[in-house]
Design a protein that fits this description.
Elements: E1 6-12, H1 16-26, H2 31-34, H3 36-40, H4 51-65, E2 70-77, E3 88-94, E4 98-105, E5 111-120
Antiparallel strand pairs: 1-3, 2-5, 3-4, 4-5
């Protein structure tokens, strides 16, 4: 990482109500996110966060680092689930025209989302 890179992080825990509200707003009411009975029978064992819910927090951090900047592309992967109640660390590192993004569980550092985005309209 270049010395000119800037970073920001935030710790946040989601609730089942957050998942439910995001489902209402986005229209993504997949039972893996909103139905605890259904989710209990899956490999996850309980409901998991929407990937785009995680991304909206990361995007907000980009906006705080670079007010007025916009994203022209993004790449995200979700190697592990994010559960309600788990404290999560949201981290963004902003380089000249790229943001590196990561979400990890606070207690053990397990990465649940990793990605990057092309950022325009900002100077680092």
């Amino acid at each position: 990482m270049s010395e000119a890179a800037r970073s920001i992080f935030e710790t946040r825990s989601f609730t089942q109500s957050d998942f439910d509200q995001f489902a209402l707003m986005s229209g993504d009411d997949n039972p893996i996110h909103v139905d605890p009975t259904f989710s209990a029978r899956t490999r996850f064992g309980r409901t998991v966060a929407h990937g785009m819910l995680l991304f909206t927090v990361l995007r907000g951090l980009v906006a705080r680092l670079a007010p007025g900047a916009y994203l022209t592309s993004q790449e995200l992967t979700f190697p592990a689930p994010t559960y309600a109640g788990d404290p999560m660390c949201f981290l963004v590192r902003l380089h000249a025209c790229e943001a590196e993004m990561e979400v990890s569980r606070v207690c053990d550092g397990l990465v649940t989302c990793i990605g990057k985005a092309a950022v325009r309209g900002t100077q680092t």
